[in-house]
Sequence to fold (314 residues):
Amino acid sequence: MSELQLSTKHLLGIKYITADDIHLILNTAENFKEVINRPIKKVPSLRDITIANLFFENSTRTRISFELAEKRLSADIVNFSASSSSVKKGETLLDTVNNILSMKVDMIVMRHPAPGAHFFLSNHIDVNIINAGDGTHEHPTQALLDAFSMKERVGNLKGKKVVIVGDILHSRVALSNIFCLKKLGAEVMVCGPPTLIPKHIDQLGVEVEYDVKKALKWCDIANVLRIQLERQDIKYIPSLREYAMYYGIKKSMLDTLNKEIVIMHPGPINRGVELSSDVADSEHSIILDQVENGVAVRMAVLYLLAGKRNLAKT
Ligand code: CP
Fold:
């Protein structure tokens, strides 16, 4: 496996890693994808390492994907879910993590509802931290697995046109994808109702389009996001029915384009809202490839960060 190293000890967000880091992770993930498709899917790379998966927010794909990646690398793992922990009794995040670390844990994978929770921890603890999603801020491994899946389908992303459709305002996947795709040289557009597009997002170097049909005509790849009602404190759209009518992607829309287009979604999908089932399950869709590739990409991240263990904070 690669002798090259990441420039950072933690994966806090795509904003804070370099294009070379991204290429290194994606290239390493190609090797791991080959490994997990062998009859014996396991390698001894992290045999002496203990990883704690701390989930303070719900997850299906990310939690299982990290756990499988760790097991495929032969790490020892412990899983923590906030809903069944002493967090419910008022214990702070730092006390919780320090108690877990005192049991000789080497790396932390964490999902937390507070944007910046991982930054806060990185200033107080000394083990590698991987962000598995922090509120509306970043979801770096999702963006990496998305980039890996895009490359697998369309090749080099330099100059490729990617539109991110939906609830951009509340989406950590959108922000991490924007940073990642821009670093890889793709052209990026965001599309959704004006209320769900952050003000000044054009300053990140992305185009803004409110008409989904125009956005689909423009792009090679559409990464479609879920409407995150659980993060919406006020009403941003009149109803899901109206959103589906104007922004939901249907097979009839794709048929009028008369071109190849790749459809992605990080999951979980609201079928019939952001995507109709005949699009989600069509030949255009690489949604399950994204999930498969998540394991290889997370193996690459864990493996490369393990090479940065016991170094001074970076
Ligand atoms: N894509 C994603 O983060 O899914 P989960 O919330 O199920 O982990």
In short: Residues 59-62, 133, 139, 142, 266-268 surround phosphoric acid mono(formamide)ester (CB under 6 Å). The mean pLDDT is 95.
